[in-house]
Amino acid sequence: MIDTVVSGDCLDILPTIPDASIDAVITDPPYPHIKRDYGTWTEAEWWEMVVEGVVPEVRRVLKPTGSAVFILQPNSRKVGSMRGWLFEFQAWVCREWNMVQDVWWWNSSMLPTVAASIHKLARQSVKACVWCGPLNCHRNQEAVLWDESYEYTKEKAARRLSRQNGRVSTPSGHSMDYRRLMAAADRRGGVTPYNILPIPNSSNASHGAGTPLALADWWTRYIVPPGGVVLDPFFGVGTMGVAAIKNRGHFIGIEKESHYCETAEERIARAQEENAQMEMELVS
Q1: Which residue from 111, 146, 178, 213 has the highest number of Cβ atoms inside 10 Å of its Cβ?
Q2: pLDDT at position 188
Q3: Cα 271 to the chain's mean position, in Å?
Q4: Of 261, 247, 191, which Cα lies nearest the Cα of 13?
């Protein structure tokens, strides 16, 4: 089943995957009360499908140090009144499983909506990356370090010139040893990422709710060990599979809609060809 797009309902397919065989689950499930060509669910129906149906199978197939990320966007009943399903899910994970850390994806290219421009609300530009797993789950921070910003580089240079590299206190009462901070960034080749990931969402003509490849790639590098297997029970057009291939890993994708399966297979075939071409160039 490895490196395969499986056509069917994930509730039927997941029980066929062996116990403790998956390194990570990264998925962008449907949300309640959002109309898509593949269906619409109430909050109760979503809870039954995802929390009562999918999550127990995900926990079963994950390896002992494996973790899962559910990418979910809050939505509202009407302008000025949010639905609670996402926050209830996060609380359930904290209570019944374990939330490793709260992480959010910021779609930094989000345009103002009617709710923002007419009804004076803020833009809804973040999605929760609900990260579930054991305390000791695999995570390779070295693979997802951020490049130093221009301001950070400038600050580092100024402190070195003035020799102000020691511990500095801030008005909040926190203190920081800039010498150790700068040495760590130099040694590691980057700075520790924030838990808000600013990744613009490029348009995806093949899927109305497509996950950006950059986000799938970031999570794949972070929580999947080299050569590991990523499972996506809501595969869509195969972005998680493309990310796994890009990082020399493996995937299992489950998708209910046959036309999405076809698109996913085409994208994955192109990614595999690109990998093969790169390997040939390296050898030559």
Answers
A1: 213
A2: 83
A3: 19
A4: 261
Element (H, E) at 82: strand 81-82
Euclidean distance between CA atoms 238 and 87, whole angstroms: 27
Q: 265-273 — which CB contacts under 8 Å span 24+ positions?
A: 265/5, 265/238, 267/237, 267/238, 267/239, 267/241, 267/242, 268/3, 268/5, 268/238, 268/241, 268/242, 271/241, 271/242, 271/245, 271/246, 272/245
Q: What is the pTM of this model?
A: 0.89
Residues of the chain with pLDDT under 50: 205
Contact assessment for residue 85 and residue 29, using Cβ atoms and an 8 Å cutoff: no
Tokens of 186: 């130099």
Type of residue at 146: W
Residue type, 199: I
Tens of pLDDT, residues 11-25:
999 999 999 999 999
Q: Comparing C-alpha atoms, which of 122, 132, 128 is closest to residue 74? A: 128
Determine the Cα–Cα distance for residues 262 and 276; give it in Å rounded to an integer: 21
pLDDT on residue 172 = 74
